């Protein structure tokens, strides 16, 4: 049954606390909740709304149809007299966000709800995933802030800690939640702990998400987490999985703009190759400044080879040293950019970077890993790899190093992707997040 989008002044929002979240410390893997119950809730809202329209008065029903699982304004419906206006609106897009009580989400959720990401005529349902009973209260706080923001496009907010419930039918999954690398924690431990999260979430997406769900992995180490996720979701096209390297692209653009004394919007064709780590390769060979090859504008080859590359690779770490925590607002902005690049056509001649599955890549990069490469999109959520790029010896040597690093990470998580044992893990010293130094 379709959900009728109401007008901006009358929002029958739903706020579901997934029932499982109220029970004490539930097992994370649980049978998916039946769709019937959700449909029943939607139906009851629609029935109430129709009645309100007929009687030409605000319905303002609290605890719709005896529901006990809604919260504040999300339980309340108002009249739908401006129903006509909403006929032009699109079908609600359903977006899951994990780590929804974390710092990045703190910025991102409000951009999503405001229409900045999917557009001003695109209603949205947000499904917020936390990791434990403890974080559930924080998610309630997040939902309260969303509620107080009165976003006309925000149609539904659900919170829960079971990915099999939260991911039900989602069309986008923004996987941000991950454990930070604690003091004394080995890289292999981080890969294992976070890898387990992404294996479980991959399985859940496979079981209950839309068959064409687009997945953006942000939680680190994001390339390998994305690989784990896609390997655990065999029924979803591998091409639909991305690891976020857009923050690195934005950082690289900023550095070129500073050096060339131009505004950022003059920088185009910026590729980040490889891993979201200190082996990533920001590509000044193909980048353009005001339409010209970057090397024609910036003649300082030593700067390009040494300083530019190192600055971008280590930008995250420098920021952590100064701020005392990893980038959150700029990461949220880069997530917005990454999604917008997939739902809007790429400007003619330009491209964007994303960590994507390497099978069938035209560059000779090892298959079966997630590697940042240049992409173009028609705006349909899909992308194609760009073929007209030059890879010189400088780039290739570094691309191979990042590739070797990702292959080593992959060996560490063999047990999570059905390919071997954990003991094979031998990560190199180079394997560091941008935030580690
Ligand atoms: N790719 C990139 O460019 C960047 C990636 N990152 C990475 O993004 C991740 C998040 O960063 P940030 O928001 O600052 O971190 P925070 O520590 O602020 O938030 C992380 C959130 O994840 C939650 N979480 C942990 N495990 C799970 C799980 N299994 N399912 C759902 N939620 C979970 C935590 O909640 P709880 O209280 O429940 O544990 C917490 O709210 C980190 O891995 C970071 O390294 C950061 C910057 C850039
Ligand atoms: O290491 C981190 O969590 C931060 C990070 O990825 C970045 O700033 O690029």
Automatic annotation (TrEMBL):
Segments forming domain Lactate/malate dehydrogenase C-terminal: 245-413
Domain of life: Eukaryota
Keywords on record: Chloroplast, Disulfide bond, NADP, Oxidoreductase, Plastid, Transit peptide
Gene3D superfamilies (alphabetical): Lactate dehydrogenase/glycoside hydrolase, family 4, C-terminal, NAD(P)-binding Rossmann-like Domain
Pfam families per UniProt: Ldh_1_C, Ldh_1_N
Catalysed transformations (reactions): (S)-malate + NADP(+) = oxaloacetate + NADPH + H(+)
EC number from the UniProt entry: 1.1.1.82
Principal location: plastid
Compartments (UniProt record): Plastid, Chloroplast
Similarity comment text for this entry: Belongs to the LDH/MDH superfamily. MDH type 2 family.
Database matches in PANTHER family: MALATE DEHYDROGENASE (PTHR23382)
Oligomer status and interactors: Homodimer.
Protein name: malate dehydrogenase (NADP(+))
Annotated source species: Urochloa decumbens
